[in-house]
Design goal:
heterodimer; A: about 400 residues; alpha/beta; Rossmann fold; formyl-coa transferase, domain 3; three-stranded antiparallel sheet; 12 strands; elongated; B: about 400 residues; six-stranded parallel sheet
Chain lengths: ~400, ~400
């Protein structure tokens, strides 16, 4: 099953999104773009700061070759615009008048200081949905505090849960604070969209990165409230094997023992006393030691293959290579190539996080160059003349 | 003042259980959807897991874990292992806008409740499933849990210290972040599409794919550069200092992220411009990155003399991102921001008593979501669903109870 050609139904194809997001909101705008919305990335003249985040194509910093920017900005258009210039703010108002959604991550009060508050935008376009992602939300004693991915994980309490007892708590890799903020933002934005479908009314969606993290903690809150126990980091639950690490979940105990036994490595785990879950909990350390001895005789791939066959929930701690070469993901065409004509190459990107059968995920083109769509948007769409565009550039508004 | 809930009138037939599905449907319930959880005495689930509130011995209604994930929902008991149960399930789905489940792929099909079947009677039905690997593909029947999905996606490999084994979140993180919120995004997208066209559709969020999608540049760095990323502790390639530092007190820490030269100046000022900070090694980002170990050492010399709260406030006052590494006690008892935002809500539950619920994040100005009801007791909506919605007589209901169909 391949991803569709452009021209198939796009779920959000009727929507225009203005993207003013930094790292905290980029995954949100990426989702909207992947669901078919037209997303226009608005960058300061000279380019968005996120173009300086690496890694870079072949290791050389270049604002058009940031793999970070490439990943988060597939499908989007780019215009340059300086909101702090009065002419720039005026152009933004014109764009907002015809947009459906604005996603922004500015400090609280910044847009208002430019005459672009929600109330002002709402007066121009009562159907507009404005989603604001900040560290701690639009209100409250910390609403002016700055946050990054790390700070959100810290204040949202997820950071405290990760790592080794003899070291500092350690952040979850791949910017999960930013991702959680963006995921909650996309759901919140689409809730506002549903309301607009019914009522015609836009609204302001306020997302706190801290709350996004604090909401996603399994039973940690209930444990503290009901038992007083403060959950904390407990080290690594992954087990070394011949060429890496494995993660296992304790389902299918009997199947697991049968497997070890078939290779003569079950030791005393075949004893029926281990069938009691309470016994296994008490004897966890011994069980772990037996498993480690077993794991050491096999590679990640061997263990995973056999575990799948025997329906025992083990996975390898996958590296990038393991993930990209995973046969199952590839059998589903999860990875998608995008052309980079400027480099004469095509690169493999991660594909659909969700599969809607009638309105599939869209992967149409690479991230835009800085201001790549200035002419399309300013000249064709807004009707500025080429001279006026030059003038505005000279003024630093575009 | 009447509060408008945007999803009022939207009904969800919820066959999900444990973590990811309920977290998704909880969001819909917060915003007004009528979410009917289909439970059964013949299925397990988390109602009996710890932690438990105090209450009647053996009650299925005291689980803190279950309750927090299921506020604002209704509950029925229905034995889907009987043909009568399946028939009733089909009727309920016929009255619903959305049906979701996390059974193994093929289970709904075997019950005659595939999307193709359901949409014959209900063309607007939106059906969503969250299998681990997906309903098709090489390993379509693979089983897994949040922890194994986390490892599969590469999160573990990127979490921890370079000189130690990989570690992880230990909270089955994909079940509370990537899976449920991709699922919610997809369902809400399908609702919008249905608003435009009148048609529902089938949605699959494969947990492996959902979680492999939140891996930042893990994939591109490999496919473009051949680089296999690995864990770097709390350090990152784009900011320095960027770490977690020990503070005064027992296991107290502060997180600091200096992301610009302006913030570096603010940071130095907040520390009182100590002599070590004007060392030219630290003047630029590149320099700070090169000498990061020494830099961290100096900073921790300072942080260890102060509480994390003091440090956070003084750094934030100087424009520097900083935050206490809060634990759950900090968050629930001492955090004035979460308190002002009303993040933790106390609700009176008929058996568990006054207990805390969280989870509402998106704050919508015109149609705010609400934690307006505690979690449902097992089967509390049986009368409402079977008698009122499905029009069964009292005799029918009693018969089904005796036959362990309503069970």
């Amino acid at each position: 099953m391949n991803l569709p050609q452009s021209g198939s139904a796009k779920a959000l194809g009727d929507l225009r999104v203005l993207d003013l997001a930094n790292s905290a909101g980029l995954y949100c705008t990426r989702l909207l773009a992947g669901l078919g919305a037209e997303v226009i990335k608005i960058e300061p003249p000279g380019g968005d700061p996120t173009r300086h985040i690496g890694p870079f194509y072949h290791g050389t910093p270049d604002p058009e070759k940031s793999l970070y920017f490439w990943h988060y900005n597939i499908n989007k258009k780019s215009i340059t615009l300086n909101l702090e210039q009065p002419e720039g703010a005026a152009l933004f108002r014109r764009l907002a008048a015809e947009a459906d959604i604005v996603i922004e991550t500015f400090p609280t009060g910044y847009l208002a200081s430019l005459g672009l508050s929600f109330d002002e935008l709402h007066a121009i376009n009562p159907r507009l949905i404005l989603t604001s992602i900040t560290g701690f939300g639009q209100t409250g004693p910390y609403s002016h505090y700055k946050a990054t991915d790390l700070i959100a994980l810290a204040m949202g309490t997820q950071l405290y849960l990760c790592g080794f007892q003899d070291r500092a708590p350690v952040r979850t890799g791949a910017s999960q604070g930013n991702h959680q903020a963006s995921l909650h933002a996309s759901a919140g934005t689409l809730l506002a969209l549903f309301w607009r479908d019914i009522s015609g009314e836009g609204q302001h969606v306020d997302i706190s990165m801290q709350q996004a993290v604090a909401a996603d903690l399994q039973w940690t809150m209930a444990q503290y409230e009901l038992t007083g126990v403060v959950r904390k980091r407990e080290g690594s639950r992954l087990f070394p094997c011949k060429d890496g690490y494995m993660r296992y979940h304790t389902g299918n105990w009997e199947g697991l023992v049968a497997w070890l036994d078939s290779e003569g490595m079950a030791e005393d785990l075949t004893d029926p006393r281990w069938l009691e879950q309470s016994a296994r909990r008490a004897g966890q350390q011994h069980i772990d030691e037996v498993l480690i001895r077993f794991f050491f005789t096999h590679t990640k791939a061997e263990i995973y293959q056999e575990a799948v066959r025997r329906r025992i929930p083990f996975t390898a701690s996958n590296s990038a290579k393991d993930l990209v070469e995973d046969p199952h993901l590839n059998s589903r065409n999860f990875f998608v190539e995008l052309e980079h004509p400027e480099l004469g190459e095509r690169f493999v990107y991660p594909g659909p996080p969700m599969r809607l059968e009638d309105t599939p995920w869209v992967m149409e083109h690479r991230a835009p160059f800085t201001g790549e769509h200035n002419e399309e948007v300013y000249l064709e769409r807004l009707g500025l003349t080429a001279d006026r565009l030059k003038e505005l550039k000279a003024l630093g508004a575009i | 003042m009447e509060t408008r809930l945007p999803l009022t009138g939207v009904r969800v037939a919820d066959f999900t259980w444990i973590g990811a599905g309920p977290t998704c449907t909880r969001l819909l319930a917060f915003f007004g959807a009528e979410v009917i959880i289909v439970e059964s005495y013949t299925r397990g689930g988390i109602r009996m897991q710890t932690p438990q509130a105090k209450g009647p011995e053996g009650s299925p209604n005291l689980s803190g874990f279950f309750n927090n994930l299921n506020s604002c929902k209704r509950s029925i008991t229905l034995n889907m292992r009987t043909p009568e149960g399946i028939a009733i399930g089909r009727k309920l789905i016929g009255l619903s806008d959305i049906v979701v489940n996390n059974f193994a792929p093929g289970v709904m099909d075997r019950w005659g409740l595939s999307y193709q079947e359901l949409r014959k009677e209900n063309p607007g039905i939106i059906m969503g499933e969250m299998p681990v690997g997906g309903r098709w593909g090489l390993l379509k029947n693979i089983i897994g849990y949040g922890a194994t999905v986390e490892a599969f996606a590469g999160i573990n490999e990127l979490t921890g210290y370079p000189d130690r084994p990989p570690t992880g979140t230990e909270i089955n993180y994909p079940d509370y972040a990537s899976n449920p919120y991709h699922f919610a995004t997809a369902i809400l997208t399908a609702l919008h599409h249905r608003n435009q066209t009148g048609r529902g559709q089938y949605i699959e969020v494969a947990q492996f794919e959902s979680t492999a999608s939140v891996m930042d540049t893990l994939v591109l760095d490999y496919t473009v550069n051949g680089n296999i990323q690995t864990r770097t502790g709390n350090h990152v390639s784009y900011a320095s200092p960027h770490a977690v530092y020990r503070c005064q007190g027992d296991d107290r820490w502060v997180a600091v992220a200096v992301t610009s030269e302006a913030e570096w100046s603010g940071f130095k000022r907040a520390l009182g411009n100590p002599a070590w900070a004007v060392d030219h090694r630290f003047d630029t980002f590149e320099g700070r990155k090169t000498h990061e170990e020494a830099l961290d050492g100096f900073i921790e010399g300072w942080t260890s003399q102060h509480t994390p709260e003091e440090i956070m406030h003084s750094l934030q006052a100087a424009g520097v991102p900083a935050g206490v590494v809060q634990n759950m006690e900090d968050a629930m008892r001492r955090d004035p921001q979460l308190a002002q935002r009303g993040f933790y809500v106390q609700l009176e539950h008929p058996e568990a008593g006054l207990t805390t619920y969280d989870g509402l994040v998106a704050r919508l100005s015109a149609t705010p979501g609400q934690l307006r009801a505690p979690a449902p007791c097992l089967g509390e909506a049986n009368d409402y669903v079977f008698r009122e919605l499905l029009g069964m007589s009292e005799d029918e209901v009693n018969r089904f109870i005796m036959q362990e169909v309503i069970h």
